[in-house]
Amino acid sequence: MSGKRIKLSGAEFRKRDEEKNKKDKLLISQMPKIQSLFKKKPDSDVLIEKSLKTDDETLKSLKLNSDEQVEKSLKTDDETLKSLKLNSDEQVEKLLKTDDDTLKSDIKLICKTTNVPICPSQDPALWEINSDIIDYFIRNPVVSNPKIINFDSTIRKCGEFNRKLPRDIFKRKLLNGEIKDRQWLLYSTSKNALFCFYCLLFSNKKTQFSSTDSGFTDWKKCLEKVEQHEKNLMHNESIRIWFSRRKLTTGIDVELKIELEKRELYWRSIIHRLIETVIFLSGRGLAFRGNNETLGSKNNGNYLGCLELIAKFDPLMSKHLDEYGNKGRGNVSYLSHTICDELITLMNKSVFCNIVNEVTAAKYFSLIVDSTPDITKLDELTIAIRYVNLDGTAVERFLCFIPSVGHKSKEMEVAILTKLTELNININYCRGQSYDNARNMSGMYNGLQARIKEKSKNAIFSPCSAHSLNLVGCHAADVTKEGYNFFSLAQNIYVFFSASTWRWEQLLISLKNIPNSMFLKNLCPTRWSSRFSVCKSLKIGFKGVLNSLKSIASNLDQKAAIRHEAESMYKKIDTLEFSFMIALWTPILERFNATSKNLQRVNIDLSCVVKLYESLEMYVQDIRNRFDNILVEAKQISGHEIFSFEEKRNKRKKCFHDDLDVQDTIFHGQEKFKNETFLPICDTIISCLNERKMAYIEINKIFGFFLNIEEIDNEILREKSKQLVAIYSEDLEPDLENEIIQFKTIVKHFSAEEKSSMRSLLEALTTSKLNDSFPNVEIALKLFVSIPCSNASGERSFSVLKRVKNYHRSSLSDEKMSSLALMNIENCVLQSMDWNDFVKEFAAQKARKKL
User: Which pTM does this prediction carry?
Assistant: First the structure.
């Protein structure tokens, strides 16, 4: 039967493979070799052969040339082509069309056949003088360097005495007093002898100065013999030969070098423009690529679009785009996305190096860690560090995002330590850490802060002060039913109006006649203190909101569900309770918002955190005593004189026969609202603030005596300093107590502003150049200032993450996303860096010089 496949045996498979291999070998043997393209060099082509004997640097540059550069470099004039003596024009054309790999193999073949010395010895006694060595040193002349000679090891027995090579032998003093270097005089360490560079290469007569077998060794008559040699006719003839040979062989090299320098300058100028474009786009978090990479297309992306814009006003870039734009693959233009990605990667590494160098110079640092999901629902762990610069200012730098770490403290610890080790940042110098109040982060036994303390015992944990303040507000809002209903209703009002453009327009019409009115604001789920804008907009536009709801509820053109919802909201907010909550929360949240913004600043220390918490606590305490004033304001807002529950009969608890005679206290009217809503909110805020600030007070107690140093007795200062040295025994010396006693007299001359906080005290000490006299005081202040007050830098990195990795760029790789985020967040570092060395390094790495 036909159609059934019969499987061959293993032996048959092997037999067929052997036959196929034989056919392939036969076919390869019949193919012409590349050597057949070149005519064998006759003796008359010695000059050509010598011109190909380049040094190793020229060979390296030739190896890295691209197709287009090779084509241009080989387009020499007719006379050069004739001297090459190729078989025909077709062979020349084939040579011009060779790719990079072929060129590399040809260069390696030339190096082997011509026996080019790759790295001749610096010891002249070890030179094997031949035409290759001579040609090499004509292009690379050796100059004597007496600085590297160990003259103590040049001792020789001259007669009855031991003599050393005189240092002055490498200098020639003229009659008019001028001193010239004898650059031709070389010293051999292997022979412990002197040689003449010119005579060694070109002298026909072997003398002590030109023979590699012996060399000149008579130190006693050294000066006399050297003077005789440099006046010798044979020496002068050797110099003449060397000069004439160098003139002949370096003519083309000089022109080539000039052309190389021109091309190098050209490419450096182009790369500088590319770098500035990358800095511009990354600093604004913009996308680089578009739908295509075609110049002139409106969909080619921001990167090529910016280059086209620059080209309109820059002749160099305009010429570059005209000459190299849209050339396709295999043509060097530096306009492709590959080069752009390489620039981003290398610039990211440069910024990393800059930050790591700053951290190394500062020595002490603190960790700031947080996590959030990105647009692809992938958890991103952000790492930032805080340290004190050499000028005494505290800075916080973003390091990177690490994806898919997990939420367990052990997993986060491994990820953090791995990254710090990769960046050569020593965890032993970590002196602080700040995270949010989540259990896996702040747990004192198994949390991340406890694990970091195992690695660095003095890494003090400071809870994020801004996050703690948010928790205070959240807890106070949820402690009463009225408080919870107020914010829930405020959000429902915003959702109701914003869900329809017509309803939003009706609201704007109602608010138009109210002075200083604001749009309704949405409740922010993370920044709780920003709810101040929600309360303020409701307080100013209360009447307008009521009128809008009333008109919508009575509008028969609207659906019944919409009219019912509007009427329901109208009844809920048209009460004295709702107006009272507006009057109460608006001033409290205004202070919360201002305090939260202050806590998120970088240039703040824990002493300021304690002051801010205490001031906020005192402010709420004052609000607690102003119930009657707030009630009057609420009545003015709502127009109601009594609370809604006063219109209802009070509920009474049913008593049973076994109940005690003690009756529950029943409040009525204003007293009921005051005791069940107003006082619990205020007391919760006060108690939570007092509880949260204790974490910062404990840290502040260790260093706090610096702020009151003028008022504290010397004995107490000594005791405090001893306690501080005991805690930081690896960082502070026992001399700290003596420095503090002397520093106390210096502080008197500081201004009140300079003594207001530990940060300003450190800056005053550094700017006054007194840190050398008080090194331990400076270290103590740095340790305190380097402790972070909040992890706001981590939160700000999340905002950048949302811009960099958005819906349209969700496929960004983790490495590139982290690089773009770093360049966006630390754009000030990018702006301040000198990119000249970077351009040289990039050009050296690519090595594409077109001739």
Answer: 0.68
